[in-house]
Amino acid sequence: MNAEPQSECTKCLQEIEFFRASDIRQKSRCKWASLGDENSSFFHNIVKGRYARNAIPGLAVNGEWVSKPAPVKREVLRFFRNHFKEKIRVRPSIPVVAVMRRFLWSSSSDGKRINWVAWNTLTLPKNMGGLGLSKLQHVNEALLLKWNWRFKTEDQSLWKKVMLGCHGSIRSWSSLPCSLSASGCWKHITKIGEKRIHNGTPLNKFFVAIVGSERLQVINGEKRLSWDWRTAPNSAAQISELFQLLSDIYDFDWKGGTDKWVWTADKEGVFSVKEAKKLLFSSSNLQATRHFSWKGWAPFKCKIMAWRASIDRLATKSELIKRGVSLPSDLCVFCISNAESSTHLFTGCIYAAEIWSRIEAWCRISPIFAFEVSDLLKLADYQGNSKQYVGKEVEYQRSSIIRY
């Protein structure tokens, strides 16, 4: 028999079988409509057929054929449990904050160094007495919040269409669509917008929609709105909400333009991770420490040292002993009369007094009376903004470098 007539016969038989099955299904639907639950044989036959096709009659276990249901179930469970089982029960984690802290204070991985300033203080903004380092939690949350902005502005992107297909709902009034059974990264993205800042405002409130001429038009002083109904209002509550919406539209001050989203935390209305981090920091309710002015011509590393001196976090003998370092004495190495601390080294020691006296003569400024390191940092408020003070500040930082 030739191959071509055989394939034609096979194709004809398949078509006959297809039409026969369609006819049976159609007849079953008609009987179901008239007889209801009495016509259940067809559906039971379908279920039995699928059950027979999906059944496992037996498995070969260690070279032996096993057909009893209980051993077959145990073998299937054992196979998939071993297949998806993790070889390492505890997943390794990278202590990123610890790595950053070690890099800041020791710049290497050799040995353990003293962390002189608390991490929460280092991550404070400079205007609140910190160094302005980014907190990884705030950076991560700001980047997650950026997906809210992208979802609202990238209408034609493929990933947005996928998310709408997976989580979209006609009843959803949330900022981002998310099914109740969803888990993982997308759920975290939707939850981050619900986080509230210090005044109780959720982050989603900073995304504001501006209605443009695509939906609302004004013709001869009359406002006309184009609707795109998925389902028409069909209850008294929905009709009441519709009339309230129409009333709000009538009172709306329309300025033209196109539909767009605005990020109100930024002056330009465009989302930025920097402004999002500021909002997230405001929700942490951290208190500001001493104010430190970072203006000046001194090198940055000298300003860091002056900042540490202002909060008493220099490696003086008193601070080292507090942190468990064994020293023969805590007395100042210069005057050998008082405990060595930041305040003593910069203001109380007789050698420091001599240095400040010579700075006064060299810069031709009025006498310096300082009892704390903070008093030295406020000299600009009393000496004015002349070039003499600039020279004094450089000499102050330079004298600090000579000491350390």
UniProtKB/TrEMBL annotation:
Q: State the signal peptide span.
A: none
Single annotated GO MF:
RNA-directed DNA polymerase activity
Q: Which domain of life is it from?
A: Eukaryota
Where the record annotates domain Reverse transcriptase zinc-binding, the positions are 271-356
Q: Which InterPro entries match?
A: RVT-Znf (IPR026960)
Which Pfam families does the entry link to?
zf-RVT (PF13966)
Q: Which UniProt keywords apply?
A: Nucleotidyltransferase, RNA-directed DNA polymerase, Transferase
Question: Which PANTHER family does the entry mention?
Answer: OS12G0587133 PROTEIN, REVERSE TRANSCRIPTASE ZINC-BINDING DOMAIN-CONTAINING PROTEIN-RELATED-RELATED
Q: Give the protein name, as stated in the record.
A: Reverse transcriptase domain, Reverse transcriptase zinc-binding domain protein
Protein's organism: Artemisia annua
